């Protein structure tokens, strides 16, 4: 993320953009959409994504999908403790008690999308990436994450899943 300090102030470009994008989402909430987004964000949390990856792992008889999503989720929890970034202060539609960076929902969704991409490699997997996009946007909509938290979560989730897949592939190919 950009970390340049704006002239005449101490706020970074990242913080200004985060606030402007968050305000855009909050100021354009729709009464009919809000309960749907809250339900969606509840059903797409990191634990649910891990459960979905267990189902995929069982269906494909591979252990690495739940390992990948689980590892991404654990790393996310550790980073939250280390970074300890505050969540947005106002207009939260759901309650969250841990730190903001990275978004655990975005981590889980991107890790799951990457798992499916590496396993299936079909055109319809793009729908799972759309789901990951919507998961991240839903977290900004409900006011519990800064957009930069979402971007970091997507990068972390996809990266850990790809690295886990690669590691398992290397282990399978290594001579015993």
Rg result: 17 Å
Structural class: mainly alpha
Number of helices: 7
Strand content: under 5%
> Globular, elongated, flat, extended or rod-shaped: what is the shape?
globular
Low-confidence stretches: none
End-to-end separation: 43 Å
Main beta sheet, described?
A: none
Q: How many beta-strand segments?
A: 0
Order of helices and strands: HHHHHHH
Please, what is the average pLDDT? 91
The level of helicity is 55-70%
List the helices and strands and how they pair.
Elements lengths: L12 H15 L6 H10 L2 H15 L3 H20 L20 H17 L5 H16 L5 H27 L3
Q: What does this molecule look like?
A:
This protein is 68% helix and 0% strand. The protein has helices at residues 13-27, 34-43, 46-60, 64-83, 104-120, 126-141, 147-173. Helix 6 (126-141) packs antiparallel against helix 7 (147-173). The longest helix is centred in the last third of the chain and has 27 residues, at 147-173. It starts with 12 loop residues before the first helix and ends with a helix.
């Amino acid at each position: 993320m950009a970390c340049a300090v704006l002239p005449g102030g101490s706020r970074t470009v990242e913080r200004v953009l985060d606030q402007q994008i968050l305000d855009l989402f909050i100021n354009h909430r729709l009464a009919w959409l809000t309960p749907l987004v809250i339900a969606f964000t509840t059903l797409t949390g990191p634990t649910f994504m891990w459960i979905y990856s267990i189902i995929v792992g069982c269906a494909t008889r591979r252990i690495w999908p739940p390992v990948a999503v689980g590892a991404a989720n654990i790393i996310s929890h550790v980073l939250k403790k280390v970074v300890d970034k505050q969540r947005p202060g106002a207009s939260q539609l759901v309650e969250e008690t841990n730190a903001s960076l990275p978004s655990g929902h975005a981590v889980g969704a991107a890790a799951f999308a990457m798992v499916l991409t590496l396993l299936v490699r079909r055109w319809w997997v793009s729908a799972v990436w759309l789901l990951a996009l919507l998961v991240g946007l839903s977290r900004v909509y409900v006011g519990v994450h800064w957009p930069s938290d979402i971007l970091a979560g997507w990068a972390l989730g996809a990266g850990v899943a790809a690295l886990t897949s690669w590691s398992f592939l290397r282990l399978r190919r290594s001579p015993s």
